[in-house]
Every structure is written in structure tokens, then in C-alpha cells.
Amino acid sequence: MDAFLAGILAACSPQNLAFAFMGCLIGTIVGVLPGIGAVSAVAILFPFTVYLPPEGMIIALISIYYGSMYGGSTTAILMKVPGEVSSIVTAIDGYEMTKQGRAGPALAIAAIASFLAGIIGTILVATLGPSTARLALGFGPAEYLGLSIFSLTAIAALSGRSLLRGAIIAVVGLILVSVGYDEAAGLARLTFGTTALQQGFNIVPVMIGLFGLGEMLRIYEEETGHFSKVRIDKLMPSREECALGLAAGARATALSFPLGLLPGMLPSVLSFLAYTLEKHFSKTPEKFGKGAVAGVAAAEASNNAAAMGNLLPLMALGVPTGPTMALILGALTVYGLAPGPMLFIAQADFVWTVIGSFFVANVILLVLNLPLVGVWVRIAAIPKAILTPAVMVLCLVGAFSVRNSMFDLWVCVVFGFLGWLLTRAKWPLAPLVLAYVLGPMLESSARQVIELSPLVLLERPLFWMFIVLAALSLWFSRRLWRAIE
Amino acid sequence: MSDEQTVRSRLVKNAEIGILLLLGAVVTGDGIRFVLVTRHLRALEVGGYEILLGLLLIILTLFYALKPLAENWRISEGNRNTAIGYGLLVAYAASLHGLGYIISTLIVVAAYMRLLGGYRMASSLAVAAIFATASTWLWTTLMISLPRGYFSTWILW
Predict the structure, then answer these.
(1) What is the ipTM of this complex?
(2) CA end-to-end span of chain A, whole Å?
(3) Which of B12, B20, B82, B125 to mutate to probe the A interface, most A CBs <10 Å?
(4) How far apart are CA A37 and CA B124, in angstroms?
(5) Which residue among A171, A385, A447 sits closest to B60, beta carbon to beta carbon?
(6) Is the overall model pTM greater than 0.90, yes or no?
(7) I need a labelling partner for B108 at 20 to 30 A (CA). Which of A128, A201, B14, B118 fits?
(8) Which ranges of A82-178 would DSSP assign to H, the alpha helix?
(9) Inter-chain contact A187–B145, Cβ cutoff 8 Å?
């Protein structure tokens, strides 16, 4: 607990506070822009944070992530323009409340539920993180192989309704990451004799392309949300609304944090699940979809609790559970910091400052968001003919700046087209990205196991536990999608 | 689904299957090349991994080919604006190396506003000029290097 408090104090240093504040502000601004979700916001802004010190970069990225999630909810409630998939659930009841003239209470409940879920999530990360890291210290190649298989199976099964499509796109991701020079063997794979391909595809331009440019191209296909002027007379909800909202938020947090620890359980999936369960067990299910406060609170709390849950495996095991976490992993590796159990030991101060910054970012967002609702609404109304070229310039400059390479710029352009094409044909992108990040770990651990002897797997019960979890995730995903439908 | 949509969806699915099988074959072929041709100590493990991935992709794609089109599956319609948007993006990426950041950004942002937003040429150019100048100042302040182009000696930044 002392370390956690020290982390909060370190996160409150003027410099870190400035990074958190700027991250929250910029994240919210990008998040309110129609069509740009949290993953896109982090992907677009990531290259510009590499100029900060390591702590500052991660604090800024986490704050951008939180800020963009808050921003997406604001436009979902006021304009029915969800910034990302997870905000679609918020829009169901949030926009109905706005139409009934209750925009203020809807925004306040969303902010309060998110804040409480974020704070509870931070405390749980601080409590469970060190013990999870200690457990992972005993992991060898067999366990990492099992963990990679489990993560990939779960993400393939949970990221879309078709398991087969998820599995295919994950294999494509594994193939893409194998392009280039294999450092262990000193051989070039899938380069077809070209020197440009020997360096492989850097994750940053790939992600910016898939999530930044891909989203921008998709925006052209969508109708811009029609925004009728919203009057926000009263901001605070009534006592009854508060009680309903907080209870629903607490239930959603209790459900979403533990499930968020599992790969593939992204905030988008869990907010649907929390909303469905809240409606199922509600005494007044008929109110859902017609402006139920509990619906807004459940969706928002679930969103934030799942985001916190996603952070724990990243920090303690070095395993990302979704595309945003994959980017944050990429950010850490820029500084040679490998997330995982050793990070908690070798860089304890760094880890606790980052965890402390989760707490600080949640407080900043609560203070920042509600008074500035009017500003967010004006930003969200920017015409897309001005917005899209600006974001595209940002994407290309970001892709170029990572290695000052025109090759990366073209990788970004090609992956932008691929991202748009895959989204149009309803292929899930999350398995591709996860496979891209986990591919090297999967390959190196498999090679080590084979070098030792495959029989070593028989002596490693944790490997088999992960295989059983992979099988369970397949079974669970079918039931989950049926429940959501 | 209407007949037209079914035919279109079938065509798209066939194209997907073709591309995936081709990718699987290329990866498997590269793996076989390592194993059979490259005389390297670790060629078997490097090539073996590729063969495994390639075959896995081919097998999964064959299963996918056997699955019928889902009732509610239908790809969304593209539109003219997306094609223009992507065309301008490619033009921007191609021009950055030669024209440099400022000139390319000025032209492309103005073109976007004119072609996709229907703004007047003068106002598009004015906004694009402000954006190009302000963003150049921001990137240079942040010490982010930009493509300078052939005309960099004429432009003071």
C-alpha cells in the first residue's frame, strides 16, 4: 500500500501531472471527434509521445486512452455518435435521456460511474499486480507458449461472431510479423530478395494504418451524426437516479474487472454483456432503451473496469489483451522496458508511478469533463472535410517520424487500405494485432520448447492449464455471443 | 438478402478465399525453400514455422470456403468519397518525398476541402495554408523531423 501511495505522490509531481492533464485533454478532444475511438486515438497520437521521458510517455498514453473513452461517451450521449464500439451501448439509453431533456444527468452518471469503476480498478491493479508478477516469475518457455496459445485462441473467439474468421486473421497476423530478418537464425523470411522488407513491418505504422487511416476512410461511408442543439440545464442527477446508477455501476465493475483480465475481453464486448445482464436482472427491464440511468451507468462502468482489467496482464505478464494494450506494449519497448514480472522488480518505481497515474487521470477526467461539455460538443461538430485531412496528415507524420523512413509511411498507407477493407468485409482486426504482438513470443517459446524436448510440456501443469483455458474460452465465446444477441 | 447482394457477397468471399490461399501457398513455399535449399543450421526451425503457418492458413481457409454465406452477412457499400479520400492519401504520401511537408500538406488539405467538402477554392487554400504552417511549426518545435523535399532550400523552416 505504501508503494501505491508513493506512486500516486510521484504521479502528482508537476511534470507528471502536466503529462496526465495534457493526455486527458488531447485524448478527450480526439475521442469526441466522430468515428475516432480509443484505439485510433492512441494509435494516431502514440508516435508523438515517444519524445517524452518513459514515465511521461506511458502516463500520457494511458491518459489519452482514458480521455478518448470519456470523449466517445460524451458524443454518444449527446449526438448518438459513438466514438467506438463500446460507446454504442452508452448511446442506447444516453441519447434517449438527452431527447427527454436529461442530458446533464446522463453525462454526470456516465462520468461518476466511469470514475468509480476506474478508481476501484486502479486499487485492484495495485493489489493484484505484484502477486501476479511473482507468480509469473516462475514462467518458462512452456508457460509462455501456453499463454500465447490461450491469448490468441481467446481473442480469435471473442472478437467477432465467427471463430473461423478470427482464427484466419490471427494466422495472417502471425505471418505478417514473421516478415523480415530473423535475429535468432540470421535469415531473412518472406522478403523476396528486397532489402526494404528485411527490417519487417514496424508495429507503429501498422497500427496507425489499421486503426487511424482505416477509420478515417470508413468515416466517408457513414452519415455524420445529426446534432440538434442540446440544452443542459441541470447537470446533477437526482438522489434516486444516483442510487440506481451507482448500484448498476458497482455490479458492472464486479463483472467486468475480472473478465477484463482475460485476453479478448475488450471493453466493447464487456459493455454489451454488462448492459444485457443489467437489463435481464432489472425489476424494470421495459425502461431499458428508453432512457434508463442504470443502462448508461452499467455500460460506462463496465467500459472503464474492463480497461483497468486489461492493464493488469500487460503490466504483470507482458501480455496485451487487446489492440490498445498492444500499442502500450509497443510504447514500453521503445525504451527497452519489457513489461512482465521483471518490470515490477527491476523498475518498481516506474510501475508504481504509472499505476498512480491511473488514479490521477481518473480524477483529472472527472474534474475536466463535465464543466467543458459545451466545448466538446463544438469540437464534435467539426465538418469531416476539415477533420479527415488533418487526421490523415497526423497519421502519416506519426508513421514517418518513428524511424524517419518513407518505407514506414507506405506501410501505413497500405495497412490503412487493408484496415478499411477488412472492416468493410466485417473481418475482426483485434486478432490480427494481437497475433502481431504475440507472434515473436509464440515463436521463440515454441522453438525453445522444441530445443529442450517437447516432452518437457508433460512436466509443466501451467501449460496445460492455459490449454484448458483456451478450450474454455472457445466454449464461453459461443455462449457469450448468444447472450449478447 | 436479394439475389444481387448474394452474387456480390459470393464474389467477395471467393476473392477472399483466393487471396488467403495464395498467401498460404507463398508462405509455405518460402518455408520449403528454407528447408530444402538453404544450408543453414537453423533453416529447419525457421522454415518449419513458416510451413506450419502456411498450411494452417490453407486448412482454415478451406474450412471457411465450405461454410455457407451467413444469412445476415453483407458487406457495406463503398462510395465515391472513399475512393477520392484514399486517392488523395496516396498522392500525399507520394508527393511528400519530392515536394516536402509544407507544399504537399497545403495542396492535399486544400484538395480535400474542395473535393470532399465543397468549400470555395480561396477558403480551402487559406485554411490549408494556416494548417500547413501551424503544423510545421508544431512539429519542428517538438523536434519531429519532416520530409523536406527538393525545394527545402527556398523555404525557411
Answers:
(1) 0.89
(2) 42
(3) B82
(4) 27
(5) A171
(6) no
(7) A201
(8) 85-99, 103-136, 141-158, 163-178
(9) no
